[in-house]
Design brief:
The structure holds 2 protein chains of 2 kinds. Chain A contains 11 helices and 9 strands. Chain A is of the alpha+beta class. In chain A, the strands form 2 sheets. In chain A, strands 1, 2, 3, 4, 5, 6 and 7 form a 7-stranded mixed beta sheet that branches. A two-stranded antiparallel ribbon of chain A has the order 8-9. The longest helix of chain A is centred in the middle third of the chain and has 37 residues. Chain B folds into 3 domains: about 120 residues, Acyl-CoA dehydrogenase/oxidase, N-terminal domain (Butyryl-Coa Dehydrogenase, subunit A, domain 1), CATH 1.10.540; about 110 residues, Beta Barrel (Butyryl-CoA Dehydrogenase, subunit A, domain 2), CATH 2.40.110; about 120 residues, Butyryl-CoA Dehydrogenase, subunit A, domain 3. The mean pLDDT of chain B is about 90. The chains are: A alpha+beta, B alpha+beta. At the A-B interface, helix 7, strand 9, helix 8, helix 9 and helix 11 of A face helix 9 and helix 12 of B. Chain B: GO terms for molecular function: flavin adenine dinucleotide binding; oxidoreductase activity, acting on the CH-CH group of donors.
Chain lengths: ~375, ~425
């Protein structure tokens, strides 16, 4: 059994960590948080130069052709450093959509630009309150024109193009198709929206007869996006695990440094037990993420269950660790000056941006039932 | 990243599998399936006889205490081979319950500290299940604070004379030998005045009294010592070094990975899928789903955490500290799952006879056993302290009794 990353993958993690510690310190995160610029351009350029954006994109399409285990390792470091870039929109979503459903022409057109970071892509999915279901997608497309409003769209203001889920007639899962839309073209209006984590910008995008090119077969949209969301869920779970570990370290360091009642607060069991529980949830999430990484990288039939497991576990862990990081810091953890809130905000953004925790819990149980009946039948 | 055996591991697995297929007591399989949660219960045969018979058979063929040297009744197998054996033994591993403490904790301590003659004499019958061992550590006034124990051993010629009381001794009523931690010098600080021995449980002056537990079973015992004589040759480690010796014992407990603590989750999932409510199966209720999902990711997290530790073993490395979370997570999970399952069962949840209660009363059994799981072998709180101090590097508790002579520590009148 070798349920671990290889030495080469661990070296990649180390080099990603060194790079991000230098290029994405908290000052950079705060600059994006407080500014109007949608992301840190220098950092984004650096991530592309390091080959991180193209890690899982095949060499024939301008990528490094490494694989998804390598992308998982990079994702963990991005989560740890809170890197304020459109990496998740462009790579976990847009590039994965193209690799899953793009024609050869589409792959040749888009993937090299995504790998090089020259273009930014995103996925325009949600339209209103509550879980996105096929029947709640009101945006429609016909004869190459797409209309409707999507909100919130991650990196919607800065993206060059979006994969858009739209209704192409009828109801149910077969009513949804996917389209590639140039966001700088006519019939596209973009407005920034405020979110719980301003270090990751989102927008409202109104489409009014925008030119739309089909991605994948008509009526296959829901099935494709379900698969891509599973893939993105594993990668995002690694970001969440990276963030959990960092929040735990911050809390541990503060517990060692802060003196109250004449002793380090980390010597009180009330504090120790909070930190031990943070370690437990971060460890469970990491182990579940390894399963997700295995399923993602091998194309295993376990992916739907593994992805939902990693997603639920890592969402819980990051929220738990970022919440208790503030608690251990006491009042100072509530200030703008301390960094605790950056992790708290990111953890709550990531808990929602691929669908909420309860939706993924629901998916997990559905999939476990399906898996069990498959096993019973076998 | 994969779950595959190396070629050597695969060969070993195949050998173990075929031996088990040819030799396991298959008639017991249905009863072993329903037996669990805190003891071995077989209706048709005496559980101890069944356990001893299987252990003897394994030992004769070289499948007992696999990681022990051959000279001491083992196989000289690697740690990963021991785990593979455990996976293949599966259900039949439940028959090893009476030997767990002897094999997992007493044996390794004897191996580390006894004389060569003693090892050759005592370890093979322990490996083969002919002799059962218990661990005499906890006392009425020394549970989590083990080093506060008071059972006295005083030197008298070539012997030591022991007086005092132990408690929570699992399996003492069946044991032939015991590993005994005593206080030999009350005038020094509490960790410094301890000494370890092993003794014959049939020695004059040893009295075992089973404790009636809240689940109406009697697996734990009190053990009383009245002028019990132990030869000095049965001392393990130097006089005053008992604490260090006990750490060897406890470290072995933590290294015995791969067995996997039961959580009750697969049983609960099955119940939720099968149990019909007026609105369909319980599993379709969103409130039930949220809870199931929460436990599902914990159970899965424990499983894959164990796989990470196995991967380290497979590469010949020492597993990291992540395995220390197992009992902490599984213990309270089992208790919560039991309560939730009874809730789903409604009025029938209060029935305890397997013939009346749903799911052969397994959740009722679990409910009444699980409080012990959260206490034995390190309480939840002690485990959190261990994670905080040894894994996260937080400072130890301020110990007011640390540098005080043991006999000067306040006792609260006890």
């Amino acid at each position: 059994m070798n349920f671990d990353f290889s030495d080469e993958q661990k070296q990649l993690r180390d080099s990603a960590r060194r790079f991000l510690e230098k290029q994405s310190p908290v000052a950079v995160v705060r600059r994006v948080l407080e500014g109007d610029e949608g992301y840190d351009k220098e950092l984004w350029k650096g991530l592309a130069e390091m080959g991180f954006t193209g890690a899982a994109i095949p060499e024939e399409f301008g990528g490094a052709g490494l694989g998804h285990l390598e992308l998982c390792v990079i994702a963990e470091e991005l989560g740890r450093s809170l890197a304020p870039t459109p990496f998740s929109s462009s790579i976990y979503l847009a590039a994965e959509f193209l690799m899953a459903a793009g024609s050869e022409e589409q792959k040749a057109k888009y993937l090299p630009k995504l790998a090089s970071g020259e273009w930014i892509g995103t996925f325009a999915f949600a339209e209103g309150v509550g879980e996105v279901t096929p029947d709640r997608i009101a945006s429609g497309a016909s004869q190459g024109k797409l209309s409707g409003t999507k909100v919130p769209v991650p990196d919607g203001e800065i993206a060059d193009f979006a994969v858009v889920a739209a209704n192409t007639g009828g109801s149910g899962v077969r009513s949804v198709s996917l389209f590639l839309v140039d966001l700088s073209g006519a019939g596209v209006t973009r407005t920034p929206v405020k979110t719980i984590d301003p270090s990751r910008k989102h927008a409202r995008i109104a489409f009014d007869g925008a030119a739309a090119e089909p991605l994948g077969a008509a009526g296959e949209g829901w099935s494709i996006l379900t698969n891509v969301l599973d893939r993105a869920a594993v990668l995002t779970a690694f970001e969440q695990v990276g963030g959990s570990d960092r929040a735990l370290e911050m809390a541990r360091d503060y517990a060692l440094e802060r003196i109250a009642f004449g002793r380090q607060i980390g010597s009180f069991q009330a504090i120790k037990h909070i930190l031990a529980d943070m370690y437990v949830s971060a460890t469970l999430a990491r182990s579940n993420c390894y399963w997700g990484a295995y399923a993602l990288s091998t194309g295993s039939a376990e992916l739907p269950e593994a992805a939902a497991t990693a997603r639920v576990s890592a969402t819980q862990a990051f929220q738990h660790c970022s919440t208790n990081n503030i608690q251990v810091h006491g009042g100072m953890g509530f200030t703008w000056q301390f960094d605790c809130h950056l992790y708290y905000k990111r953890s709550n953004l990531l808990a929602l941006n691929l669908g909420s925790l309860s939706q993924w819990e629901n998916k997990l149980i559905e999939r476990m039932r399906a898996g069990n009946s498959a096993k019973d039948a076998a | 990243m994969n779950f595959d055996d190396t070629p050597q591991e695969a060969a070993f697995r195949a050998e173990a599998k075929s031996w088990i297929a040819a030799n396991a007591p298959k008639a017991l399989e249905p009863e072993l399936k329903t037996s669990g949660f805190g003891g071995l219960y077989l209706g048709s045969v005496d559980p101890m006889q069944a356990a001893k018979a299987w252990q003897k058979k394994k030992a004769a063929a070289g499948w007992a205490c696999l990681h022990w040297p051959k000279d001491y009744g083992g196989r000289g197998a690697s740690p990963i081979e021991r785990v593979i054996w455990g996976q293949e033994e599966g259900l039949y591993a439940k028959l090893s319950a009476p030997f767990t403490i002897g094999h997992g904790m007493c044996g390794p301590t004897v191996m580390a500290f006894a004389s060569e003659d003693q090892k050759r004499e005592r370890l093979p019958p322990l490996a083969s299940g002919e002799e059962i061992w218990c661990q005499l550590f906890s006392e009425p006034a020394a549970g989590s604070d083990l080093a506060g124990l008071r059972t006295r051993a005083e030197k008298d010629g070539d012997d030591w004379v022991v007086n005092g009381q132990k408690i929570w001794t699992s399996g003492a009523q069946h044991s032939d030998w015991g590993l005994l931690l005593t206080r030999t010098d009350p005038s020094v600080a509490k960790h410094k005045g301890l000494t370890m021995f092993f003794l014959n449980m049939r020695s004059p002056g040893v009295e075992v009294r089973p404790i009636r537990q809240m689940n109406d079973q009697r697996t734990f015992n009190e053990v009383f010592f009245e002028n019990v004589r132990i030869p000095d040759a049965q001392r393990l480690g130097a006089v005053g070094q008992g604490w260090q010796v006990s750490l060897t014992t406890l470290m072995n407990e933590r290294l015995s990975i791969g067995s996997g603590m039961p959580t009750g989750f697969p049983d609960l999932f099955e119940l939720a899928c099968q149990l019909e409510t007026p609105d369909g199966p319980a599993v379709d209720d969103p409130a039930v789903r949220a809870k199931l999902a929460d436990w599902a990711v914990k159970a899965s997290g424990l499983r894959f955490t164990a796989f990470r530790a196995l991967s380290a073993l497979s590469k010949g490395e020492t597993p990291g500290p992540e395995n220390s979370i197992g009992k902490l997570v599984a213990g309270s999970m089992m208790q919560d799952i039991a309560k939730f399952a009874l809730d789903l069962e409604g009025h029938a949840g209060l029935l305890t006879d397997p013939d009346d209660a749903p799911a052969l009363a397994k959740f009722q059994t679990m409910l009444l056993r699980s409080p012990a799981t959260r206490i034995e072998g390190g309480s939840d709180e002690i485990l959190r302290n261990i994670i905080a101090e040894r894994v996260l590097g937080l400072p130890p508790d301020i110990r007011v009794d640390k540098d005080v002579a043991f006999n000067a520590i306040p006792t609260g009148g006890r």
